[in-house]
UniProtKB/TrEMBL annotation:
NCBIfam families: GGDEF (TIGR00254), sensory_box (TIGR00229). This is Bifunctional diguanylate cyclase/phosphodiesterase. Residues 138-165 form a coiled coil. InterPro entries: Biofilm_reg_signaling (IPR052155), EAL_dom (IPR001633), EAL_sf (IPR035919), GGDEF_dom (IPR000160), Nucleotide_cyclase (IPR029787), PAS (IPR000014), PAS-like_dom_sf (IPR035965), PAS_fold (IPR013767). PANTHER family: BIOFILM ARCHITECTURE MAINTENANCE PROTEIN MBAA, DIGUANYLATE CYCLASE DGCP. Residues 192-328 form the GGDEF domain. The lineage of its organism: Bacteria, Bacillati, Actinomycetota, Actinomycetes, Micrococcales. SMART domains: EAL, GGDEF, PAS. Residues 337-592 form the EAL domain. Keywords: Coiled coil. The keyword Coiled coil applies. Pfam families: EAL, GGDEF, PAS. Transmembrane segments: none annotated. It comes from Aquipuribacter hungaricus.
């Protein structure tokens, strides 16, 4: 006997296996052509309905459905199937061989035609009883349409309600909001302004978490009832998400639409103020309300939604529970923000970022070399941009992770170059970490990988974190910093004095340096308060066994004051501006100039 090729055997076995799966699947399967003519049917469907394969293959699939469900398929399901290529979970009835009707859940997909193969519809039928309440109502109303034209109209209306309205609150749903909102703008009498209010319930998740989802649903139903009570007939009310609602209406045709729009928002806020009783628990509801108003021709439905959303975010940024009116300039800022992020992402990928390095100098004139890496962006159109232009946007968007990885890698690569440069000696580099990076559990592993990749001693790297970043999640920050300390990396607290870290918390962190914020250093000699703050920071650092570093030293007077206070290191334009890496060699070589600026006598290297 000749043994067939292994590949051929495998293909035949696979085909047989797929055929067996099709025939014996736990649910009914049929396939049809584009005209609905049945081409294949599996054993499960035949056993369930009592039909024979010979009686079904070649016949129309529609004959298996009662009249109402045929109408549903023709008017609702088939257009969606042709448009989307799939249909999910439609409740129908299937007529069995004994003419009984059996409830079923029908799903279908369409495989488009291809060379040598016609289009095919794949239909899955699950025997299910009242799987979803709204699908049951659709089936019930369409069955009523078989007996009376009046009932048919009622059924069609209910179907439209199910498609266009939220099932919990009965308000318009997100999918069909845009059409109604545009219609409201277009029909505004005499070109009167139209207002949209985006109402975002504050801390709604705490109700779900503490009282359960049933209580949360009860709260949402009551909120929708209160919203209905404060708007006139003809206004648009919608539920956009779990705890987001939209109120839209026309305003009186006055010159300034701002006050009437804010008055409507205030009525909505007052309607939500009274406590609600949910599962015998008194719940007080507040909301962040964004308001946008405009005249037809100046704004459409989409523009109203965007404006209200921007204003809503401004309320949430202020701490929630408030009202904000959108101004057009906000939208320009938002678009510019998105454009900046896109350009920055390309800039990182295309190598447009640069690192400049600012020296840190010991006040006794020791000949050690330490620098802070400061990122710049060589924008192809706007030139060299400082970090203040793009760092905050990167931090808010999450792009700061990619930016931070680039800065760390580039700084360590440069340290490796300096290690091989004659006359520099050992260079220590400080790199800033963002709040998002500090709470990233993969940070220690990323730092360790970068150090090994460039062959840099961990003691040559100092990571700077702000005092505020430490307090966002102190436990996570401590875990991350301890892991970094295990690597042998130094840790500095940047902008010290501007945050709110208590001494108790500060003692828990493995820190080596405190960098006193430049805003206090600038007032040395001119403000008794700044003198006292800087002195306290230096004493605190030394009391904890840490080095004290002063940022923003711009003149000899500040330098002398810091020397009297016992500060260890200084950094600022008076001693050295941020410079490209190739300029550091010349700066280090100018030892006499540095000592002159320090006003110090030469001291032996440690």
């Amino acid at each position: 006997m000749t043994t067939p090729p292994t590949g051929a055997t495998s293909s035949a076995d696979a085909a047989d296996g797929y055929e067996a799966l099709f025939l014996d699947a736990p649910c009914g399967y049929l396939t049809t052509d584009d005209d609905g003519c049945i081409t294949r049917v599996n054993d499960t469907f035949l056993a369930w309905t009592g039909h024979t394969r010979e009686g079904l293959v070649g016949s129309s699939f529609g004959r298996l459905l009662p009249v109402g469900d045929r109408l549903l398929m023709a008017t609702h399901a088939m257009p969606r199937l042709v448009t989307d290529g799939h249909l999910a979970e439609l409740m129908v009835e299937v007529v069995a061989a004994d003419r009984s009707r059996r409830p079923a859940l029908l799903s279908a997909s369409r495989r488009p035609p291809s060379p040598g193969r016609e289009a095919e519809l794949r239909v899955v039928v699950l025997s299910a009883h009242e799987r979803r309440a709204y699908e049951g109502r659709v089936v019930a109303t369409l069955q009523q349409a078989e007996t009376a034209e009046q009932r048919r109209a009622e059924a069609e209306h209910e179907v439209r309600q199910l498609e266009t309205h939220d099932q919990l609150t009965g308000l318009l749903n997100r999918d069909h909001l845009r059409e109604r909102l545009d219609a409201l703008v277009t029909a505004s009498p005499g070109g009167a302004p139209v207002v949209a209010l985006l109402v975002d319930l504050d801390h709604f998740s705490s109700v779900n978490d503490s009282l359960g989802h049933a209580a949360g649903d009860q709260l949402l139903v009551e909120v929708s009832r209160r919203l209905r009570s404060v708007v006139r007939s003809g206004a648009v009310l919608a539920r956009l998400g779990a705890d987001e609602f939209l109120v839209a209406d026309t305003l009186a045709p006055v010159a300034d639409s701002g006050p009437p729009a804010l008055a409507l928002a205030a009525r909505v806020a007052r309607a939500l103020e009274d406590p609600l009783l949910v599962d015998d628990v008194e719940v007080v509801v507040s909301a962040s309300i964004g308001v946008c108003a405009g005249r037809p021709g100046d704004v459409d439905g989409a523009g109203l939604l965007r404006g209200a959303d921007l204003a809503r975010h401004r309320v949430k940024a202020r701490g929630r529970d408030g009202i904000a009116l959108h101004v057009p300039e906000e939208q320009v800022v938002a678009v510019d923000h998105l454009r900046l992020l896109g350009e920055l992402r390309r800039g990182i990928q295309e190598g447009q970022l640069r690192l400049h390095y600012q020296p840190l100098v010991h006040l006794d004139g020791r000949a050690s070399t330490a620098v802070e890496a400061l990122v710049r962006w060589q924008h192809p159109e706007r030139g060299l941009l400082p970090p203040g232009v793009f760092i905050e946007a990167a931090e808010r968007s999450g792009l700061v992770h990619a930016l931070g990885r680039w800065v760390l890698d580039a700084a360590l690569a440069q340290v490796a170059v300096w290690d091989r440069t004659e006359g520099l000696g050992r260079v220590q580099v400080s790199v800033n970490l963002s709040t998002r990076q500090l709470t990233d559990p993969s940070l220690p592993a990323d730092v360790g990988t970068a150090l090994r990749r460039h062959g840099v001693d961990p003691g040559q790297l100092v990571l700077e974190v702000t005092e505020t970043a430490l307090m966002v999640d102190p436990d996570a920050a401590r875990t991350t910093l301890l892991a970094l300390r295990e690597l042998g990396v130094g840790i500095a607290v940047d902008d010290f004095g501007t945050g709110y870290a208590s001494l108790t918390y500060l003692q828990q962190f493995p820190v080596d340096e405190l960098k006193i914020d430049r805003s206090f250093v600038a007032g040395l000699g001119r403000s008794d308060a700044d003198d006292a703050i800087v002195a306290s920071c230096v004493q605190l650092a030394h009391g904890l066994g840490l080095s004290a570093v002063a940022e923003g030293v711009e003149g000899a007077g500040q330098l002398e004051a810091l020397r009297r206070l016992g500060c260890d290191y200084v950094q600022g334009y008076h001693l050295g501006r941020p410079m490209p890496p190739e300029d550091l060699v010349a700066w280090v070589a100018d030892r006499a100039g540095l000592l002159q600026r320090l006003g110090a006598s030469p001291a032996p290297a440690p």
